[in-house]
Amino acid sequence: MNWIALLLTILGLVLLGLLLYWQLIIAEGAYLGPRVVVLMYDWSARIYERIKRYVPGDEQWFLGLPLTRALELIPVPLVLDVATGTGRLPRALLRQPAFDGRVIGLDLSRRMLREAVRRTAQFADRLTYVWQDARNLPFDDDTFDAVTCLEALEFTPDPRAVMAELVRVLRPGGVLLTTNRVGPDARFLPKRAFPRDEFERMLSALPLEDVKVRRWQQDYDLAWAVKIGEPRGGGIRPLPEILRCPACTDRLSREADLFRCISCGRAYPIDKDGVIKMARFERATLTSS
User: Is 50 exceeded by the pLDDT of residue 281?
Assistant: First the structure.
């Protein structure tokens, strides 16, 4: 009987190891909730780019250059990069000589944003970072000339809801650039990664046109699309004009070192590194003038 117990113990440990590998390595905590995903990215922020082994030339050729060309007719375009991580997309775009716009990068991992600020310091005058959840983008409808979200949808609790948010804040005629997980591990990400035909149907169900999905890397398809409607992009608007309170969706006013909701009074501090902290808001003390 002892050998049976030993065998069952070994089998249980193997199964536990496989489960942990699936949940923490393949799915990166996606099925354990956003807090686990954020914790894993916070832990790996300093070494993230060494793990991913990004090639700057490839990033500019396959991301920065085509996005710049897609926006070349728009004066001073405004771009939102959701799940910006260490500032990968902003760097690829802002290094393009022909791109004269601004970029806002949004992420739920505070330490990834800290790393992004460090790596993009040379572009600080054209780049703003926001600490917030992609499921509740704190921006007005029809705001951005381009919205990007790379290698991140499969790690969100509801990729379809996030996709709808990306399109909501995109201006008519604006460009959507996003990815879908494919490759050998995709089958282990049910309801997070999609077969290409299903992903294309998901995009086509949104107010998008000119949808093109192509193989990009071993593990990802790259999707381009344009929001339906008469193009009316161009021109940078001040942050108080486009930022919205994540709690009540009303406008924010700018104060010395924070943004304050004009309706509910919540305050969103601007951290020392310039990141706007919206993921954890606090009730402000309302004062009369």
Answer: no
